[in-house]
Amino acid sequence: TDRYSVIGRPINHTKSPLIHGLFAEVTDQDLTYGAIEGSLDGFEDQVLCFRDEGGRGMNITAPFKLRAYELANERSERATLAKASNALKFEHGKIYAENFDGIGLLRDIEHNLQVPLAGRNVLVLGAGGAVRGAVLPFLAAGPARLVIANRDLTKARALAAEVNDDRLHVCGYDALVGQDFDLVINATSASLTGELPPVATAVFGHALLAYELAYGKGLTPFLRLAREAGVMRLADGVGMLVEQAAEAFEWWRGVRPETRPVIDRLTVPLE
Ligand code: ATR
């Protein structure tokens, strides 16, 4: 039996063992998947210890994604741009780092919610780790424009400078006045504290979809604002969570589980 685990702090609310357990069941994979409460001064030792005891891979959640990235010997391009890793694989005596958050978000939007990004005007709020991981997959999906708005403009500019793509624009929230978008994605951590990013209702224009990365929080202030602005489709990050898990599962096991039944099982109505 191969061993996997998620590590984070706090870890008590994690859905990853449930998700990977369901994946293992339906794909007939012989594995166990646990959860480890990370230690702020012993994270690296915990990962190495898990590996040395026969662990094959780990998912990494807050606040350790950057440290996981740094601990690895081999890093994917996505993880490198994100400077953060949410999945590690232990193989051939090496630690491989991946970042599936962005591709998971993209798959949820395009595949599950059926809103292709091609030719669209996309607004992403926030410029933290989640957004850094999403920029490359998003640009690869062919949007007309990808605008990243952040309070701290320096952070957003640093990201744009690393990417160098003329469809990518970064700005502060003030500069959004007078613009509207087809898709608006809240990737700030504001919803975790019940706050609203300082975004004007007008950005929603005739938006097809408003997407909140946080999950299990019901209608967050961002989703409420989107609904008031008339956006027909609202989504939270449960699909992204399951999709990034499926990517990791496939990376580790070579088989891709079906995600729809797991998403349905975890979905809590937004109302
Ligand atoms: P994550 O890894 O989840 O993306 P992070 O790297 O800590 O988290 O980034 C958090 C993001 O949420 C940042 O873009 C932050 O904006 P600043 O860089 O300007 O601080 C954003 N954020 C957090 N609280 C916010 C709020 N109340 N309004 C707007 N943005 C907020």
Protein traits:
single chain; 271 residues; alpha/beta; Rossmann fold; 2 domains; 6-stranded mixed beta sheet; 6-stranded parallel beta sheet; 10 helices; binds 2'-monophosphoadenosine-5'-diphosphate; oxidoreductase; Aminoacid_DH-like_N_sf; SDH_C
Question: In terms of topology, how is this protein built?
Answer:
Elements: E1 2-8, H1 16-27, E2 31-37, H2 43-52, E3 55-60, H3 65-71, E4 74-75, H4 77-82, E5 87-91, E6 94-98, H5 101-112, E7 121-125, H6 129-140, E8 145-149, H7 153-163, E9 168-171, E10 183-186, E11 209-212, H8 221-228, E12 233-235, H9 238-253, H10 260-266
Parallel strand pairs: 1-2, 1-3, 4-6, 7-8, 7-10, 8-9, 10-11, 11-12
Antiparallel strand pairs: 3-5, 5-6
2'-monophosphoadenosine-5'-diphosphate (ATR) is lined by residues 126-131, 150-152, 155, 188-190, 195, 197.
Helix content: 25-40%
Instruction: Give, in order, the helices and strands.
Output: EHEHEHEHEEHEHEHEEEHEHH
Uncertain spans? none
Total E-strand runs = 12
Which architecture of the largest domain would the CATH scheme give at its second level? 3-Layer(aba) Sandwich
Domain count, please report it: 2
**Proportion of beta-strand residues:** 15-25%
Hetero ligands: 2'-monophosphoadenosine-5'-diphosphate
CATH topology of the largest domain: Rossmann fold
Quaternary structure state of the chains depicted: single chain
Mean pLDDT: 96
Sheet of most strands? 6 strands, mixed
What is the spatial order of strands in the main beta sheet? 2-1-3-5-6-4
Helix and strand composition category = alpha/beta
Round the Cα radius of gyration to an integer and report it.
18 Å
Q: Which CATH class of the largest domain is shown?
A: Alpha Beta
Calculate the terminal CA-CA distance, rounded to whole Å: 41 Å
CATH superfamily of the largest domain: NAD(P)-binding Rossmann-like Domain
Shape: globular
Separate helix tally: 10
InterPro entries: Aminoacid_DH-like_N_sf, NAD(P)-bd_dom_sf, SDH_C, Shikimate_DH, Shikimate_DH-bd_N, Shikimate_DH_fam, Shikm_DH/Glu-tRNA_Rdtase
Protein name: Shikimate dehydrogenase (NADP(+))
Active site: 65 (proton acceptor)
Catalytic activity: shikimate + NADP(+) = 3-dehydroshikimate + NADPH + H(+)
